[in-house]
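Example record

One chain of 175 residues, shown exactly as stored in the release files.
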Amino acid sequence: MYRAVALWAQELDIPLEDHYRLEQLARQAHIGLDGETVVLNNRDVTQAIRQPQVSEAASKAAACPGVRTAMREEQRRIAEGQSCVMEGRDIGTVVFPDARVKIFLDADPQERARRRAVDLGGSVSVEAVAQDIAQRDHRDRTRAEAPLTQAPDAEYVDSSLLSPEEVEEAILRIV
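Predicted structure tokens for this chain:
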């Protein structure tokens, strides 16, 4: 969701430092999630939001308190009255602090960089991705509102040495 807002801001040439305009975009955005597909204002943006420049912008947009408030309200609306699985850097601490099951999924930074470089088709070096991830993590851990942190009651899962199937198995055991 944050990536979609950041993408839209980039498309409209809105500076990421303009918190007022970013909040307005976040409140006007029609973001739909359907399995693996992300739709922004009736347009499939699934691939566009995965680009490195959008990842960088998403972290900056997420530091805007108004954007966080708008996204939190939308996430709570989506989950209202139903069971759901959500992921995000503040889902268990801020968005749903009373969730029955919370999992803090983590991996070694170098392994995260390797995986992301593979996702990008090898178009970016693992080293460059590692630098981007380190900057994003630092920005997210030190932001004033809803910093990235593990909820005290979340189960920690280190996926560094696990296959996707093993991660799924570990999570299902917790659930």
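Notes: The chain has a mean pLDDT of 92.
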